[in-house]
# Entry
Amino acid sequence: MYKSLIVDDEKNIRDRLVTFFPWDELGFGVVKMAENGEEALTIINKEVPDVLLTDIMMPKMTGLELVEKIKQSYPQIKIVILSAYDDFEYAQQAIKFGVKGYLLKPLLKKEFTEVMNKLVMELKEEKKVAGHDEQMLLDLTEGKDVEKYKDILKYDYNRIVICCLNEILKEYATFTFRQSLKEKITSYFNQQEIPILFYKNSLILLIFKHKPISKYDIQPIVQQFLVFVERLLIDMEIILKPVYIGVGNLAKGLEQINKSYKEAIYACSYKYFNPNKYIIFYQDLKPSAHNLVKQEKDSFDDKIQNCVGNLVESILTKETLKITTIVNQYTDLIIHYKGENVVKIKKESYKLIMMVSLKLKEEGYTITSIDEEHVLQKIYQLQSLQELKKWLRHVLQLFAVDIVKHNEKYNNRYVTVAKNYVKNHYQYKITLQTMAEELYLHQAYFSTIFKNETGENFIDYVNRVRVEEATKLIKNTDLKMKEVSNRVGFQSNSYFNKVFKKITGKSPLCLRKR
# Structure
C-alpha cells in the first residue's frame, strides 16, 4: 500500500478529499493531512509519502514553494497540484518542478482517479525496476549468472562504488529511520538511472558507460552524493556523520565487476588508516603486501620479537613513555611487511598483546588488568588505526600498573634474597644476569628494583661486599694481594686495586702498611 499527503489550508477540502475519493481501491493505505507547507515538511521528514497533493495558495508557504523544497530533498515524491485557478503561469511553474498532475477545484472523481491510477502505475513500475536492479547487482558483485545480464546491461565499462553508511546507521538503528533513508537514497539514484543495492550497512552503486570510466568521471557523482546525504541528514534533524566511499578499478565487461567490487570494499576499509579521507580510489592505494619469502619472514619475526622484548623491558622498568614509540614502530612494521590490510593488522595486534602478556607471566607476574578472552573482540570493534594504537598503549600501560602492584608486594623480598645470596657467594662469579636468573626475574626489572630499594646498582653492591671481605683478609691474614683478590671473587688483580681504591679511598697495600 502507498502513502499520500494532502496539503490544503481549508479543512473542509482536506476532509472531502480523504472521505470522498476511493483511496483504498487505488492502493493507498495511509492518507495524512497538513494545513500548510511548514506542517507538511515536518510530516514528510518523519514519514516520506509516495504522493503529495497540495494547494497553491496557502499562508506561510505557497504550494509551489513547498514543491521546490521537496524536489531538492525528496525527488522521488510524486506531486499533484490542486488549484482553484486555471492559470497558465502556475501550470508552467508546476511542470518546471516536475509535478505529475494539475487538478482544478472542485475535483471531479473521474479526473482524480485517472491521475492517481497513472501515478500508481509509475510507482509499481519503479518498484519492479528497482527490485530487478538489486538482484542484478547482487549477482554481478558475487560473479553469478553473468551471461544472463549481457543482453540487459550492454556496456563495455563498469565500476563499482561502495558507500559505507556504518557511522550513520550504528547511531540511528531503528527500522523506520533505515527505511526512510533507503527510500530517499533510492529515489536520488533512480533519477540518475544508477543501479543500487543496499547490503548490510553499505550502499553499492554500479556506474556504467560505453567508454572507459576515469577517476574524474566518478568524482562528481560521489561528491554530489555526499552533499545530498549531508542535506538529507540536516532535513531529518540528524547529527552529521561521515560517509566513506570506496571506488573499485575499471571493470572491462561484466565478468570483472566482481573484482571491482572487492577492490571497492578494500578501498572503503582504508578509512581505518585515514579517517579524514572520505573518498578512496583503489587505484590510489599501495598494493597489498606480497607473500613473504623465508628470508623476509625471518627478518619480520626477528623485528617483532625485538619489539615485544623492548615493550616488556619498558613495562618492567616503568619507562611507559617508551611504549608509545614502540607501538608506533610495531604498527609501521606490520604495514611494511603485511600491507595496509585491516584484518592482518588487527590479528598482529592481538598477537602482540598475547605475547607481551605471556612474557610477563613467564617472569612470574600476574596480569589482571585485561580479560584475555575478549581482547580480539575489542580490537575488531576499533574503527581506525589511531584508535587501535591508543588502545594498545592503554593496555600496555595497564600491564605496567599490574607490575607495580606486584612489585609493592614482592620487591623487598627479592632484594633481601639477592643480598643474602651475594654475602654467601661473593667469592664466585656473580653478574646481573646470573642473579636475575637465580630469582626468575627479568634482568632489567631486577636491576631497577634493586636500585630503587638500596640506592645503588647491583654490581656496585657486589663490589662493596667483596671489598669489605677483602679488608678483613688484608688486616687479619698474610695472604698476598693476588690471593686476596681471588678469594673475594675478583678475576683481575688490577681491577681489584681499582675498585678497592674507589670504595675506600686507599689502595690495598696502603691499608696493609698501616
User: Anything to note?
Assistant: The domain at 130-284 is CATH 3.30.70.270 (Alpha-Beta Plaits). The longest helix spans residues 385-425. The CA atoms of residues 133 and 195 lie 6 Å apart. The chain has four domains: 2-107, 130-284, 294-400, 409-513.
